[in-house]
TrEMBL record:
The keyword Coiled coil applies. Keywords: Coiled coil. This is Uncharacterized protein. Residues 255-356 form a coiled coil.
Protein backbone atom coordinates (compact mmCIF):
# COMPACT_ATOMS: atom_id res chain seq x y z
CA UNK A 1 0.00 0.00 0.00
CA UNK A 2 1.27 3.45 -0.99
CA UNK A 3 -0.25 6.82 -0.19
CA UNK A 4 -0.09 10.19 -1.92
CA UNK A 5 -0.54 13.39 0.09
CA UNK A 6 -1.51 16.13 -2.37
CA UNK A 7 -1.26 19.55 -0.82
CA UNK A 8 -0.63 23.20 -1.60
CA UNK A 9 -1.83 26.68 -0.79
CA UNK A 10 -4.94 26.79 -3.05
CA UNK A 11 -7.53 23.98 -2.81
CA UNK A 12 -8.97 24.72 -6.27
CA UNK A 13 -5.60 23.65 -7.78
CA UNK A 14 -5.45 20.40 -5.78
CA UNK A 15 -8.83 18.94 -6.64
CA UNK A 16 -8.42 18.79 -10.46
CA UNK A 17 -5.04 17.04 -10.19
CA UNK A 18 -6.46 14.58 -7.63
CA UNK A 19 -9.30 13.85 -10.06
CA UNK A 20 -6.70 13.08 -12.77
CA UNK A 21 -4.95 10.67 -10.39
CA UNK A 22 -8.29 8.94 -9.83
CA UNK A 23 -8.67 8.47 -13.59
CA UNK A 24 -5.20 6.90 -13.69
CA UNK A 25 -6.11 4.24 -11.10
CA UNK A 26 -5.52 5.78 -7.68
CA UNK A 27 -8.32 5.61 -5.09
CA UNK A 28 -9.65 8.49 -3.03
CA UNK A 29 -9.29 8.14 0.75
CA UNK A 30 -12.11 6.29 2.47
CA UNK A 31 -13.49 7.31 5.90
CA UNK A 32 -13.16 5.19 9.02
CA UNK A 33 -15.25 2.04 9.05
CA UNK A 34 -17.01 2.93 12.30
CA UNK A 35 -17.82 6.55 11.41
CA UNK A 36 -18.53 7.45 7.79
CA UNK A 37 -18.32 11.17 8.62
CA UNK A 38 -14.72 10.90 9.82
CA UNK A 39 -13.00 11.52 6.48
CA UNK A 40 -9.43 12.69 5.98
CA UNK A 41 -10.77 16.19 5.20
CA UNK A 42 -12.85 16.20 8.40
CA UNK A 43 -9.78 15.03 10.33
CA UNK A 44 -7.73 17.98 9.01
CA UNK A 45 -10.51 20.45 9.88
CA UNK A 46 -10.86 19.15 13.41
CA UNK A 47 -7.12 18.99 14.08
CA UNK A 48 -6.42 22.48 12.72
CA UNK A 49 -9.42 23.87 14.63
CA UNK A 50 -7.55 23.03 17.83
CA UNK A 51 -4.69 25.27 16.74
CA UNK A 52 -5.55 28.82 17.76
CA UNK A 53 -2.65 30.32 15.83
CA UNK A 54 -1.63 28.19 12.83
CA UNK A 55 1.22 30.47 11.94
CA UNK A 56 2.85 29.91 15.32
CA UNK A 57 2.54 26.13 15.17
CA UNK A 58 5.43 24.38 13.41
CA UNK A 59 4.66 21.62 10.92
CA UNK A 60 6.49 19.13 13.10
CA UNK A 61 3.96 19.44 15.92
CA UNK A 62 2.01 16.26 16.60
CA UNK A 63 -1.78 16.65 16.71
CA UNK A 64 -2.17 14.43 19.76
CA UNK A 65 -2.66 10.77 20.64
CA UNK A 66 -6.43 10.72 20.04
CA UNK A 67 -6.04 12.27 16.60
CA UNK A 68 -3.27 9.82 15.75
CA UNK A 69 -5.60 6.97 16.65
CA UNK A 70 -8.33 8.39 14.40
CA UNK A 71 -6.00 8.81 11.44
CA UNK A 72 -4.74 5.28 12.11
CA UNK A 73 -8.32 4.08 11.61
CA UNK A 74 -8.48 5.96 8.30
CA UNK A 75 -5.26 4.30 7.14
CA UNK A 76 -6.63 0.93 8.26
CA UNK A 77 -9.80 1.50 6.21
CA UNK A 78 -7.62 2.08 3.12
CA UNK A 79 -4.94 -0.57 3.67
CA UNK A 80 -6.34 -2.89 0.96
CA UNK A 81 -5.94 -0.23 -1.74
CA UNK A 82 -2.67 -0.41 -3.69
CA UNK A 83 -2.56 3.39 -4.06
CA UNK A 84 -4.80 5.93 -2.39
CA UNK A 85 -4.61 9.66 -1.92
CA UNK A 86 -6.06 12.74 -0.36
CA UNK A 87 -5.90 16.39 -1.44
CA UNK A 88 -6.11 18.98 1.32
CA UNK A 89 -4.42 22.35 1.91
CA UNK A 90 -4.47 21.60 5.63
CA UNK A 91 -1.69 19.05 5.13
CA UNK A 92 0.82 21.85 4.51
CA UNK A 93 0.79 22.57 8.27
CA UNK A 94 1.23 18.89 9.19
CA UNK A 95 3.82 17.73 6.65
CA UNK A 96 6.35 16.51 9.19
CA UNK A 97 3.62 14.61 11.07
CA UNK A 98 2.56 12.82 7.89
CA UNK A 99 6.19 12.15 6.96
CA UNK A 100 6.84 10.39 10.28
CA UNK A 101 3.45 8.69 10.47
CA UNK A 102 3.86 6.39 7.48
CA UNK A 103 7.03 5.68 5.46
CA UNK A 104 4.96 4.75 2.39
CA UNK A 105 3.38 8.19 2.13
CA UNK A 106 4.72 10.41 -0.67
CA UNK A 107 4.11 14.12 -1.03
CA UNK A 108 2.90 15.93 -4.13
CA UNK A 109 3.38 19.65 -3.44
CA UNK A 110 1.55 21.92 -5.90
CA UNK A 111 2.91 25.45 -5.93
CA UNK A 112 0.69 28.42 -6.83
CA UNK A 113 2.08 31.89 -7.46
CA UNK A 114 1.07 34.72 -5.09
CA UNK A 115 -0.71 36.39 -8.03
CA UNK A 116 -2.87 33.33 -8.58
CA UNK A 117 -3.47 32.88 -4.85
CA UNK A 118 -4.80 36.45 -4.54
CA UNK A 119 -6.90 36.11 -7.70
CA UNK A 120 -8.37 32.89 -6.31
CA UNK A 121 -9.19 34.74 -3.07
CA UNK A 122 -10.90 37.51 -5.07
CA UNK A 123 -12.83 34.91 -7.07
CA UNK A 124 -14.03 33.37 -3.81
CA UNK A 125 -15.32 36.65 -2.36
CA UNK A 126 -12.37 38.61 -0.91
CA UNK A 127 -13.53 42.23 -1.08
CA UNK A 128 -11.16 44.19 1.20
CA UNK A 129 -7.43 44.75 1.39
CA UNK A 130 -7.42 43.19 4.85
CA UNK A 131 -8.92 39.97 3.52
CA UNK A 132 -6.43 39.94 0.64
CA UNK A 133 -3.56 40.47 3.08
CA UNK A 134 -4.80 37.54 5.18
CA UNK A 135 -4.97 35.39 2.05
CA UNK A 136 -1.40 36.40 1.12
CA UNK A 137 -0.15 35.66 4.65
CA UNK A 138 -1.76 32.23 4.51
CA UNK A 139 -0.17 31.58 1.10
CA UNK A 140 3.22 32.64 2.43
CA UNK A 141 3.03 30.37 5.46
CA UNK A 142 1.92 27.30 3.49
CA UNK A 143 4.37 27.89 0.63
CA UNK A 144 7.29 28.33 3.04
CA UNK A 145 6.33 25.10 4.84
CA UNK A 146 6.20 23.19 1.53
CA UNK A 147 9.56 24.53 0.33
CA UNK A 148 11.33 23.75 3.62
CA UNK A 149 9.81 20.28 3.73
CA UNK A 150 10.79 19.52 0.14
CA UNK A 151 14.36 20.65 0.69
CA UNK A 152 14.61 18.35 3.75
CA UNK A 153 12.92 15.34 2.07
CA UNK A 154 13.52 15.50 -1.68
CA UNK A 155 13.21 11.72 -2.18
CA UNK A 156 9.66 11.46 -0.81
CA UNK A 157 8.36 14.77 -2.11
CA UNK A 158 8.07 16.55 -5.42
CA UNK A 159 7.42 20.27 -5.87
CA UNK A 160 5.40 21.07 -9.00
CA UNK A 161 4.04 24.20 -10.60
CA UNK A 162 0.24 23.78 -10.38
CA UNK A 163 -0.41 25.35 -13.78
CA UNK A 164 2.19 23.15 -15.48
CA UNK A 165 0.95 19.99 -13.71
CA UNK A 166 -2.67 20.69 -14.60
CA UNK A 167 -1.78 21.63 -18.16
CA UNK A 168 0.16 18.38 -18.78
CA UNK A 169 -1.55 15.78 -16.52
CA UNK A 170 -0.46 12.73 -18.56
CA UNK A 171 3.21 13.64 -18.50
CA UNK A 172 3.32 14.41 -14.78
CA UNK A 173 1.37 11.26 -13.83
CA UNK A 174 3.98 9.24 -15.77
CA UNK A 175 6.72 11.06 -13.86
CA UNK A 176 5.08 10.19 -10.52
CA UNK A 177 4.61 6.55 -11.49
CA UNK A 178 8.30 6.18 -12.44
CA UNK A 179 9.66 8.24 -9.55
CA UNK A 180 7.97 6.20 -6.79
CA UNK A 181 6.96 3.02 -8.65
CA UNK A 182 3.27 3.83 -8.27
CA UNK A 183 0.59 1.55 -9.78
CA UNK A 184 -0.77 4.21 -12.13
CA UNK A 185 -2.09 3.50 -15.62
CA UNK A 186 -0.67 5.35 -18.60
CA UNK A 187 -3.83 6.77 -20.14
CA UNK A 188 -4.69 9.78 -22.19
CA UNK A 189 -6.40 12.27 -19.90
CA UNK A 190 -8.46 15.00 -21.51
CA UNK A 191 -6.89 18.34 -20.69
CA UNK A 192 -9.67 20.58 -19.35
CA UNK A 193 -7.58 23.03 -17.30
CA UNK A 194 -7.88 26.63 -18.45
CA UNK A 195 -5.57 29.24 -16.91
CA UNK A 196 -6.79 32.49 -18.44
CA UNK A 197 -6.57 35.14 -15.71
CA UNK A 198 -8.47 38.37 -15.98
CA UNK A 199 -5.89 40.92 -17.13
CA UNK A 200 -7.24 43.80 -15.07
CA UNK A 201 -7.35 41.68 -11.92
CA UNK A 202 -3.85 40.38 -12.60
CA UNK A 203 -2.60 43.93 -13.15
CA UNK A 204 -4.11 45.17 -9.88
CA UNK A 205 -2.83 42.15 -7.95
CA UNK A 206 0.64 42.68 -9.39
CA UNK A 207 0.56 46.30 -8.20
CA UNK A 208 -0.37 45.07 -4.72
CA UNK A 209 2.46 42.51 -4.73
CA UNK A 210 5.03 45.13 -5.68
CA UNK A 211 4.72 46.22 -2.06
CA UNK A 212 5.19 42.61 -0.84
CA UNK A 213 8.85 41.83 -1.62
CA UNK A 214 8.95 38.98 0.88
CA UNK A 215 6.18 37.10 -0.93
CA UNK A 216 7.79 37.68 -4.33
CA UNK A 217 11.16 36.52 -3.01
CA UNK A 218 9.62 33.30 -1.68
CA UNK A 219 7.92 32.72 -5.02
CA UNK A 220 11.22 33.08 -6.88
CA UNK A 221 12.91 30.76 -4.37
CA UNK A 222 10.25 28.11 -4.95
CA UNK A 223 10.60 28.43 -8.72
CA UNK A 224 14.24 27.47 -8.39
CA UNK A 225 13.22 24.17 -6.71
CA UNK A 226 10.31 23.25 -8.99
CA UNK A 227 10.37 20.01 -10.94
CA UNK A 228 9.58 20.96 -14.55
CA UNK A 229 9.28 18.62 -17.49
CA UNK A 230 10.46 21.47 -19.71
CA UNK A 231 13.32 23.19 -17.88
CA UNK A 232 13.20 26.12 -20.28
CA UNK A 233 9.58 26.92 -19.47
CA UNK A 234 9.17 30.70 -19.43
CA UNK A 235 7.56 32.31 -16.39
CA UNK A 236 4.09 33.75 -16.79
CA UNK A 237 4.34 37.17 -18.40
CA UNK A 238 2.57 40.21 -17.09
CA UNK A 239 -0.36 41.48 -19.16
CA UNK A 240 0.18 44.30 -21.63
CA UNK A 241 -1.34 47.67 -20.81
CA UNK A 242 -3.62 47.38 -23.84
CA UNK A 243 -5.01 44.10 -22.49
CA UNK A 244 -5.56 45.72 -19.10
CA UNK A 245 -7.38 48.67 -20.69
CA UNK A 246 -9.48 46.30 -22.81
CA UNK A 247 -10.43 44.33 -19.70
CA UNK A 248 -11.25 47.58 -17.90
CA UNK A 249 -13.47 48.79 -20.75
CA UNK A 250 -15.15 45.39 -20.94
CA UNK A 251 -15.66 45.44 -17.18
CA UNK A 252 -17.06 48.98 -17.43
CA UNK A 253 -19.41 47.91 -20.24
CA UNK A 254 -20.53 44.94 -18.21
CA UNK A 255 -20.99 47.22 -15.19
CA UNK A 256 -23.14 49.64 -17.17
CA UNK A 257 -25.10 46.77 -18.64
CA UNK A 258 -25.47 45.37 -15.17
CA UNK A 259 -26.66 48.74 -13.84
CA UNK A 260 -29.26 48.95 -16.63
CA UNK A 261 -30.30 45.41 -15.82
CA UNK A 262 -30.41 46.38 -12.16
CA UNK A 263 -32.70 49.34 -12.96
CA UNK A 264 -34.99 46.98 -14.85
CA UNK A 265 -34.81 44.53 -12.00
CA UNK A 266 -35.59 47.32 -9.51
CA UNK A 267 -38.71 48.22 -11.47
CA UNK A 268 -39.63 44.56 -11.68
CA UNK A 269 -38.91 44.25 -7.97
CA UNK A 270 -41.09 47.28 -7.20
CA UNK A 271 -43.95 45.80 -9.23
CA UNK A 272 -43.37 42.45 -7.56
CA UNK A 273 -43.36 44.12 -4.14
CA UNK A 274 -46.66 45.82 -4.98
CA UNK A 275 -48.07 42.50 -6.07
CA UNK A 276 -46.62 40.99 -2.93
CA UNK A 277 -48.35 43.63 -0.79
CA UNK A 278 -51.65 42.87 -2.54
CA UNK A 279 -50.96 39.19 -2.10
CA UNK A 280 -50.20 39.77 1.58
CA UNK A 281 -53.54 41.54 2.02
CA UNK A 282 -55.28 38.72 0.22
CA UNK A 283 -53.31 36.28 2.33
CA UNK A 284 -54.31 38.06 5.52
CA UNK A 285 -57.94 37.91 4.39
CA UNK A 286 -57.56 34.23 3.63
CA UNK A 287 -55.83 33.71 6.96
CA UNK A 288 -58.73 35.42 8.75
CA UNK A 289 -61.14 33.19 6.85
CA UNK A 290 -58.93 30.26 7.67
CA UNK A 291 -59.05 31.19 11.38
CA UNK A 292 -62.86 31.31 11.17
CA UNK A 293 -62.90 28.02 9.32
CA UNK A 294 -60.59 26.52 11.92
CA UNK A 295 -62.90 27.81 14.67
CA UNK A 296 -65.91 26.32 12.87
CA UNK A 297 -63.93 23.18 12.34
CA UNK A 298 -63.14 22.96 16.06
CA UNK A 299 -66.82 23.47 16.88
CA UNK A 300 -67.86 20.87 14.36
CA UNK A 301 -65.20 18.59 15.67
CA UNK A 302 -66.46 19.09 19.21
CA UNK A 303 -70.02 18.39 18.02
CA UNK A 304 -68.76 15.39 16.12
CA UNK A 305 -67.01 14.13 19.26
CA UNK A 306 -70.22 14.73 21.21
CA UNK A 307 -72.24 12.86 18.57
CA UNK A 308 -69.71 10.09 18.60
CA UNK A 309 -69.98 9.93 22.38
CA UNK A 310 -73.77 9.80 22.14
CA UNK A 311 -73.55 7.24 19.37
CA UNK A 312 -71.21 5.21 21.53
CA UNK A 313 -73.68 5.42 24.39
CA UNK A 314 -76.55 4.46 22.04
CA UNK A 315 -74.55 1.55 20.73
CA UNK A 316 -73.79 0.53 24.29
CA UNK A 317 -77.51 0.85 25.10
CA UNK A 318 -78.40 -1.16 22.01
CA UNK A 319 -75.91 -3.80 23.01
CA UNK A 320 -77.47 -3.88 26.49
CA UNK A 321 -80.96 -3.92 24.95
CA UNK A 322 -79.94 -6.70 22.62
CA UNK A 323 -78.67 -8.66 25.59
CA UNK A 324 -81.90 -7.96 27.46
CA UNK A 325 -83.91 -8.96 24.38
CA UNK A 326 -82.01 -12.21 24.19
CA UNK A 327 -82.77 -12.80 27.86
CA UNK A 328 -86.44 -11.90 27.29
CA UNK A 329 -86.62 -14.21 24.28
CA UNK A 330 -85.15 -16.96 26.39
CA UNK A 331 -87.71 -16.24 29.10
CA UNK A 332 -90.47 -16.12 26.47
CA UNK A 333 -89.37 -19.48 25.14
CA UNK A 334 -89.52 -20.92 28.66
CA UNK A 335 -92.90 -19.21 29.18
CA UNK A 336 -94.23 -20.65 25.92
CA UNK A 337 -93.02 -24.06 26.97
CA UNK A 338 -94.74 -23.58 30.32
CA UNK A 339 -97.90 -22.36 28.55
CA UNK A 340 -97.81 -25.41 26.32
CA UNK A 341 -97.53 -27.57 29.38
CA UNK A 342 -100.36 -25.63 31.03
CA UNK A 343 -102.44 -25.94 27.85
CA UNK A 344 -101.90 -29.68 27.89
CA UNK A 345 -102.78 -29.74 31.55
CA UNK A 346 -105.80 -27.54 30.82
CA UNK A 347 -106.98 -29.88 28.08
CA UNK A 348 -106.53 -32.79 30.47
CA UNK A 349 -108.38 -30.92 33.21
CA UNK A 350 -111.13 -29.93 30.77
CA UNK A 351 -111.59 -33.55 29.93
CA UNK A 352 -111.63 -34.35 33.62
CA UNK A 353 -114.11 -31.49 34.16
CA UNK A 354 -116.35 -32.86 31.42
CA UNK A 355 -116.26 -36.25 33.02
CA UNK A 356 -116.94 -34.64 36.40
CA UNK A 357 -119.86 -32.69 34.92
CA UNK A 358 -121.29 -35.92 33.62
CA UNK A 359 -120.83 -37.49 36.99
CA UNK A 360 -122.28 -34.33 38.58
CA UNK A 361 -125.33 -34.45 36.35
CA UNK A 362 -125.75 -38.10 37.21
CA UNK A 363 -125.38 -37.28 40.88
CA UNK A 364 -127.83 -34.38 40.54
CA UNK A 365 -130.30 -36.73 38.96
CA UNK A 366 -129.74 -39.15 41.77
CA UNK A 367 -130.03 -36.29 44.28
CA UNK A 368 -133.33 -35.24 42.75
CA UNK A 369 -134.45 -38.80 42.94
CA UNK A 370 -133.21 -39.05 46.48
CA UNK A 371 -134.90 -35.72 47.28
CA UNK A 372 -138.17 -37.05 45.99
CA UNK A 373 -137.69 -40.21 47.91
CA UNK A 374 -136.76 -38.12 50.93
CA UNK A 375 -139.87 -36.04 50.53
CA UNK A 376 -141.92 -39.15 50.28
CA UNK A 377 -140.14 -40.65 53.26
CA UNK A 378 -140.61 -37.41 55.15
CA UNK A 379 -144.32 -37.52 54.42
CA UNK A 380 -144.41 -41.13 55.57
CA UNK A 381 -142.32 -40.13 58.56
CA UNK A 382 -144.63 -37.26 59.34
CA UNK A 383 -147.63 -39.55 59.00
CA UNK A 384 -146.00 -42.08 61.23
CA UNK A 385 -145.14 -39.35 63.71
CA UNK A 386 -148.68 -38.12 63.62
CA UNK A 387 -149.95 -41.61 64.14
CA UNK A 388 -147.38 -42.09 66.89
CA UNK A 389 -148.53 -38.89 68.52
CA UNK A 390 -152.12 -40.03 68.26
CA UNK A 391 -151.19 -43.37 69.75
CA UNK A 392 -149.22 -41.65 72.47
CA UNK A 393 -152.22 -39.46 73.19
CA UNK A 394 -154.39 -42.52 73.23
CA UNK A 395 -151.89 -44.27 75.48
CA UNK A 396 -151.72 -41.26 77.76
CA UNK A 397 -155.48 -41.20 77.87
CA UNK A 398 -155.62 -44.89 78.53
CA UNK A 399 -152.87 -44.52 81.13
CA UNK A 400 -154.84 -41.82 82.85
CA UNK A 401 -157.91 -43.92 82.62
CA UNK A 402 -155.97 -46.88 83.95
CA UNK A 403 -154.61 -44.80 86.78
CA UNK A 404 -158.12 -43.65 87.55
CA UNK A 405 -159.32 -47.16 87.52
CA UNK A 406 -156.44 -48.26 89.72
CA UNK A 407 -157.13 -45.41 92.06
CA UNK A 408 -160.79 -46.29 92.05
CA UNK A 409 -159.96 -49.84 92.67
CA UNK A 410 -157.67 -48.92 95.42
CA UNK A 411 -160.31 -46.74 96.82
CA UNK A 412 -162.54 -49.66 96.84
Amino acid sequence: MKTLCITGSVQSRLDPFAENLGKAGASAARPTTRDQEMTIAAWHRKVLATQKDHASVPSTSAPGHVWEQLVGEIFLANHNQPLWYWADTGSTLLLDFWFNFDPNTFFLLLHTSPHEALMDAIEHGADTLEVLQNALDDWYQRTRQMLRFHLRHPTRSILLDSNDALGQPDAYIDVLAQRWQLPLETIEIEQTWQNDPHHLTFYLVDKVLQNQPQALALHHEVQASLFLINDSKAPASKPELGDVVSDYLEARRLLQTGQADNDTLRQTLKAAQSQLADSNLALQDRQAKLVNLETDHRHLQAQSEQYLQELSEIRSGLENSDQENRLLLEQLRHTLENLEKLAQEDRHKSQQLTELNVERNTLLSQIDLFAKEKTALAAVHDEQARLANERKTQIDTLSKEKAGLVAARDAL
